[in-house]
């Protein structure tokens, strides 16, 4: 099992691929936004449940950054929910998509450049790999939740 930092970065890279497609306006915008939701929401919730508390414990200097990260997750999720309720051709949708992508990129950069490197300096390999397993399991649980919520409203 890869360590949690690698798993998180892999998710970020997958998300970036969908962002590139949205920016290139290739494909069905609504479907792409749903892909963003499936990649981003379970990822963020699994970070909140499994990873962020471990970072606060192991690297307490990062606590403020982690709290900022949490607030960023919540804001991005609000924007995404708003977008999923809109017609992609509506005026303002493009601007909102661009703003959401910008926010996520900023957040990812903070995780990858600051929070995660400081955490992996302090954490043992065993801790990183155990967290990786728990992160993956939590993500699966939240993806399942998202899909069943979606099928109830569809
Ligand atoms: Fe992340
Ligand atoms: Fe995050």
TrEMBL record:
InterPro entries: Hemerythrin-like. Keywords: Coiled coil. Residues 5-118 form the Hemerythrin-like domain. Residues 5-39 form a coiled coil. It comes from the Bacteria. Signal peptide: none annotated. PANTHER family: HHE DOMAIN PROTEIN (AFU_ORTHOLOGUE AFUA_4G00730) (PTHR35585). This is Hemerythrin-like domain-containing protein. The lineage of its organism: Bacteria, Bacillati, Actinomycetota, Actinomycetes, Micrococcales.
């Amino acid at each position: 099992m890869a360590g949690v930092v690698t798993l998180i970065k892999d998710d970020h890279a997958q998300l970036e691929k969908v962002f590139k497609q949205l920016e290139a306006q290739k494909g069905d915008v609504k479907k792409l936004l749903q892909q963003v939701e499936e990649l981003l929401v379970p990822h963020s919730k699994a970070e909140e449940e499994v990873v962020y508390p471990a970072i606060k414990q192991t690297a307490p200097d990062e606590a403020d950054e982690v709290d900022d990260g949490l607030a960023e997750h919540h804001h991005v999720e609000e924007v995404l929910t708003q977008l999923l309720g809109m017609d992609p051709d509506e005026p303002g949708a493009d601007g909102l998509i661009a703003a959401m992508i910008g926010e996520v990129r900023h957040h990812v950069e903070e995780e990858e450049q600051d929070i995660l490197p400081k955490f992996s300096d302090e954490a043992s390999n065993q801790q990183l790999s155990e967290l990786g397993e728990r992160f993956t399991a939590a993500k699966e649980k939240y993806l399942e939740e998202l899909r069943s919520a979606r099928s109830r409203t569809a």
